[in-house]
Amino acid sequence: MAWVVLFISAALEAVWATALGASDGLSEIVPTIVFGVALTSSMATLAYAATQIPISTAYAVWAGTGAALTVSYGMLTGQEVVTVLRVLFLIGIVGSVIGLKLLKSAPPGSLQGRAGLGARSAEQR
User: What is the DSSP letter of 120?
Assistant: First the structure.
């Protein structure tokens, strides 16, 4: 359930980012209201998801997914230029998000996941 909420939160991030762009410096009332509601909802759902997903993973997935959705929307509406490199980089972001989702999280306080950074267990010292 937390992952579903996290992806909803990322979609809301794309909504508020797009609304912010459309608000003309928060001077257009409807996009400004959409921005405020989507921003608040996005933060609340991110906070909820982070109660069950490590914040480092949740934030990376949230930011990456939201950015990919925002750029994709811009390309679909003609506000962003579609290039092969842009599409490849978006695929890279989405692939990274999928990779983070598929990784198993190590329990808090464990050395799993840190061993590749040169950490040694007490038995190895």
Answer: -
Assessment of whether the complete model's pTM goes beyond 0.85: no
- Answer for the pair 122, 109: CB distance below 8 angstroms, yes or no: no
- Give the torsion through C-alpha atoms of 48, 51, 57, 63, to 10 deg: 20
Query: Cβ distance 106 to 113 under 8 Å?
Result: yes
Render pLDDT for 16-69 as a digit per residue (tens, 0 to 9): 999 999 999 999 999 999 999 999 999 999 999 999 999 999 999 999 999 999
Q: How far is it, in rounded angstroms, from Cα 72 to Cα 37?
A: 22
Q: How far apart are CA 78 and CA 3, in angstroms?
A: 30
The helix/strand/coil state of 112 is: coil
3-state class of 53 per DSSP? coil
